[in-house]
């Protein structure tokens, strides 16, 4: 009897203090992930609101963060400003090789988004790059695209040309002002400049682009498998939606990127292949293996050993496989 009285007193005291004896509810989670004009699937997911609906079921809010380029996405992943982000495959690979704890978990597109561009009236050709000033944003596919082009032409990127590190939009502006001779540009900015400014693409090669990849922080993946799989399911939903609604998808891109609708259609239908497998594999790793010697020679990664280890540990396909299950 005395024992029961003591328990009753304790419970009463807890109630008086506003402390419930019931189990505490789990705190609501927030997912920070990116969207980008060069990732049309992310634009569709954001526009349609599917992810918010799906994650609400598991008490998770969604916060969208804009990525102007792969470099921004990787920086935000490293800083934990986002937990899931999109980038060129090589950007994620270089980041991991240099100590950023991320894993690439899915593929969103096979793009032809990088190209060498000159201003209207320029007579420069791909064989005349030596001695030229070239704008490119470090850490992005156009930058690594440029390194591959220079290497193929036996040009030293540090001696034979001057690379000016500028964000994609700033690179275009510098080209139009005449501050640089060539711009290694990124779609949809490139295609819009071709139409509006009369810029000219002098070299492109889809094989030198390193795929559109979705990556996530390793610590996040370990404790948030449900969220990650839900995100990838939404990517698959967006992939199918774009193929079924190409005009609506182009309008979403045009609105987000502030470009002409016909340019958006060109980028989406002619320069971006979204109907690709979600699961990363030999195709993506093969492209990175081919560029690895350039990354090592140009000191883009800390060492050959780091580059080799990063490539062998970059992908975690389990989330994509789980997302494909009904």
Describe this structure in words.
The protein is an alpha/beta fold and about 325 residues long. The chain folds into two domains: about 30-110 and about 210-325, 3-Layer(aba) Sandwich (D-Maltodextrin-Binding Protein, domain 2), CATH 3.40.190.10; about 115-210, 3-Layer(aba) Sandwich (D-Maltodextrin-Binding Protein, domain 2). The chain is about 50% helix and about 20% strand. The strands form three sheets. The chain has a five-stranded mixed sheet with strand order 7-6-8-5-9, sandwiched between helices. A four-stranded antiparallel sheet has the order 3-10-4-11, sandwiched between helices. Helix 10 (about 225-245) crosses helix 11, helix 10 (about 225-245) crosses helix 15 and helix 13 (about 280-295) runs antiparallel to helix 14 (about 305-315). The chain is globular and about 55 Å long. The N and C termini lie far apart (about 55 Å). Residues about 1-25 have low confidence and may be disordered.
């Amino acid at each position: 009897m005395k024992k029961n009285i003591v328990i009753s007193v304790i419970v009463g005291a807890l109630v008086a203090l506003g402390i419930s004896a019931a189990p505490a509810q789990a705190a609501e989670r927030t997912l920070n992930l990116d969207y980008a004009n060069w990732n049309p699937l992310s634009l569709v997911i954001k526009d349609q609101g599917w992810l918010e609906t799906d994650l609400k079921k598991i008490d998770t809010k969604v916060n969208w963060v804009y990525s102007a380029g792969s470099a921004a996405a990787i920086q935000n992943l490293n800083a934990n400003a986002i937990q899931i982000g999109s980038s060129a495959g090589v950007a994620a690979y270089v980041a991991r090789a240099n100590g950023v704890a991320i894993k690439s978990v899915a593929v969103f597109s096979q793009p032809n988004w990088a190209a060498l561009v000159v201003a209207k009236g320029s007579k420069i050709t791909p064989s005349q790059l030596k001695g030229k000033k070239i704008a490119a944003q470090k850490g992005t596919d156009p930058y690594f695209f440029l390194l591959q082009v220079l290497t193929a032409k036996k040009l030293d990127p540090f001696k034979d040309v001057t690379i000016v590190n500028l964000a994609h939009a700033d690179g275009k502006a510098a080209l139009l002002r005449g501050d640089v001779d060539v711009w290694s540009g990124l779609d949809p900015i490139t295609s819009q400049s071709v139409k509006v400014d009369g810029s000219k693409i002098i070299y492109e090669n889809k094989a030198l682009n390193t795929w559109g990849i979705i990556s996530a922080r390793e610590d996040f993946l370990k404790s948030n498998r449900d969220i990650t799989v839900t995100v990838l399911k939404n990517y698959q939903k967006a992939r199918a939606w774009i193929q079924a609604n190409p005009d609506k998808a182009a309008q979403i891109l045009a609105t987000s990127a502030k470009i002409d609708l016909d340019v958006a259609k060109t980028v989406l239908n002619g320069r971006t292949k979204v109907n690709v497998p979600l699961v990363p594999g030999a195709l993506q790793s093969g492209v990175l293996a081919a560029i690895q010697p350039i990354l090592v020679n140009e000191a883009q990664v800390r060492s050959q050993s780091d580059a080799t280890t990063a490539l062998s540990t970059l992908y975690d396909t389990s989330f994509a496989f789980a997302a494909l299950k009904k």
